[in-house]
């Protein structure tokens, strides 16, 4: 038995568009120049208040970052409803269906999204997670708490756990928890950065994840 923990944004769903659009509107509401798309992609995976603080050049979350975080959350659903919803990357839906049928795996999620955000993804796309941790539950990635708490709840040793994600924060979180780190090439960070952050493997397609899970030593 193994525990497989998926990041959400950039790994299962392509959410850069809706995140960037919401971020741009938030910055404009506070009379700030919106970040470039590349800068937004670079912070995806972090807890929202920390992400906004970084985009505004702050070392720590301050009152403005907290106010911007509240504004972002308030308008996110409207931006999403205006046609900017997240879609699964090619092959993800089929992969998740296949994994759900396996009795040797427990599937979970570790995400910088809020609990509400993760629930939207689950209900929109039918993803079933036996265990999950969000930004509402744990410190921001790369802190290992999301992984270690999922392991404790599901009854797994981190050594029997795989963390699959697209961000350097995912790789750092996995290694900090003592889990195997799997980087995906279709997300928002280059493979070279994922390897530098400690990725044990890089996969090119969801089918590669299925193949990797057939390997006993992973």
From TrEMBL:
The keyword Cell cycle does not apply. Keywords: Hydrolase. This is HAD-IA family hydrolase. It comes from the Bacteria. It holds the Pfam family HAD_2. One of its GO terms (cellular component) is cytosol. Coiled coil: none annotated. One of its GO terms (biological process) is DNA repair. One of its GO terms (molecular function) is phosphoglycolate phosphatase activity.
């Amino acid at each position: 038995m193994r525990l497989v923990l998926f990041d959400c944004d950039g790994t299962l769903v392509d959410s850069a568009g809706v995140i960037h659009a919401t971020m741009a509107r938030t910055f404009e509401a506070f009379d700030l120049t919106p970040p470039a798309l590349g800068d937004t992609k670079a912070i995806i995976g972090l807890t929202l208040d920390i992400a906004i603080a970084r985009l505004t050049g702050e070392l720590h979350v301050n009152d403005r970052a907290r106010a911007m975080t509240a504004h972002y959350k308030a308008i996110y659903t409207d931006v999403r409803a205006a046609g900017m919803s997240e879609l699964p990357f090619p092959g993800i839906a089929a992969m998740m269906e296949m994994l759900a049928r396996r009795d040797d795996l427990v599937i979970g999620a570790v995400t910088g999204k809020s609990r509400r955000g993760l629930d939207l993804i689950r209900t929109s796309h039918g993803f079933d997670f036996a265990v999950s941790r969000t930004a509402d539950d744990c410190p921001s990635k790369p802190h290992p708490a999301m992984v270690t708490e999922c392991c404790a709840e599901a009854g797994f040793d981190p050594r029997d756990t795989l963390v699959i994600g697209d961000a350097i924060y995912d790789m750092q979180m996995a290694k900090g928890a003592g889990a195997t780190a799997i980087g995906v090439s279709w997300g928002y960070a280059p493979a070279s950065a994922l390897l530098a952050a400690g990725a044990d493997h890089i996969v090119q397609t969801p089918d590669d994840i299925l193949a990797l899970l057939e390997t006993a030593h992973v």
